[in-house]
What we know:
Shape: globular
CATH class of the largest domain: Mainly Alpha
Structural class: alpha+beta
CATH topology of the largest domain: Transferase(Phosphotransferase), domain 1
Number of helices: 10
Amino acid sequence: MTTNHGEMTPYPDALELGTQVGRWRVVKRLGVGGQGAVYLVEDVDRPGDFYALKLALYARDGRAEREVALMMSQAAHPHVVGFHGCARWPHPREGYLGFVMDWVPGLALDVWAETDGTTFRQLATAGATVARTLGELHARGVLHRDLKPEHILIRKSDGQPVLLDFGVGWYEGAAPLTTGPLPPATLHQLSPEAVRFLWKSREYPDTHYAFQPTDDLYALGVCLYRATTGHQPFSEWLPADMLQMAIVEARPVAPALVNPRVPRALSDVIVRLLAKDPSERYASGAALHAALSEAVAGEEATWDASIFEWEEVPPTQEGGPPERHLLRPPRPKPSWSVRPSAPAPTPTRVERRSCWPRRLVFATAVLLALVAVRLVTSVAPGVRVPDEEWATDVRVGPGTAQHEQAPLPVRNQKLAPCTARLEVELSGACWLSLKQRPPDCPPQTVAYKGECLLPVTNSRPVPTSVDGGVP
């Protein structure tokens, strides 16, 4: 970026340490998302007071202005990250908009759940608190609309959940973010009714989905499924059309069948949250809070067990202490429903268009599913046991993972096309083949077909949200 005077100015996602934005001095960069960069900053007027600064990546970003308006008013809540002020950079009036909020040391919900010692009772209690918080926000007319594990932070100091990132949140009077049928969203967190509306919108253009509280609660169900099983209900790595079809037509395997350690009462709550018909889910955050609170009141020892099984392995360095590795359950294989889907919300404008492309995609998806699905014995009505062919690596952690099939990509890994004669393409992602050979692979690598493979990361993280329309 070059200023009018020919000086080079860093981009908002690459501020140098010591840069001053308003009265806050940059200490370090905490992360970069699709719309903003987050920095740890210190108040220059009060040395020793640290906050988080979220700086928009685009000038005149309406999304950032919406988030500021929301954080200053309706979204203020003890379990929502606190707001402390605004600033612009590099120009105090015309620069990129940033806002300062609480710095909350802690872990994202999914990472916290995979920490040795985290119990089902702690998870259910945190989930109940999030449900109650969402219910209170919904009562004010506020919808999060992009709830996912990384937007639920478990505070290190007291174990309490804190909601982050209301960048696509909705409130009464908010301007729309897109002209498309859906608001910006994360595809694998979308509810079945949202996907059905997206399909219908192709026949009836210029219609917009009315996001509901049940959409937020469905997304919370996806978050809890990920936390209890280590997997999404439907893999986020599926092609978009297949993932949409799975969300609408496939029944997720109950968490207790994926991870037998999950208490049955908690599994049942999550299954109900993921019902295809919103009327079969919990009607409000308060109702979900009550259900989780009642479930966790049980005295069974399973509630106080670690969410995942762990094993002790020899140290990677001679003389070092033994290491503990998480044993991730096999990836679940959903069963495809034969019942007709619940009707999609009816768009208001009627303009008939041919629907044969979607029918063709549906027929192809069902055919592929029928070819791939192997019948297994049912353990519970309407739920199938996960098959081995959906299983991926079951060990995660700092050590080396052993893969009998091609390893799946990790978060923010570079996707194909890969650099010729330098990187290896596997599972649609790029890897570096190291000189070392199994079993001497370094940490953070995977062993596959006699090679040690290191994931190639993106130079800039890939946004986890996708836009449902035209910006």
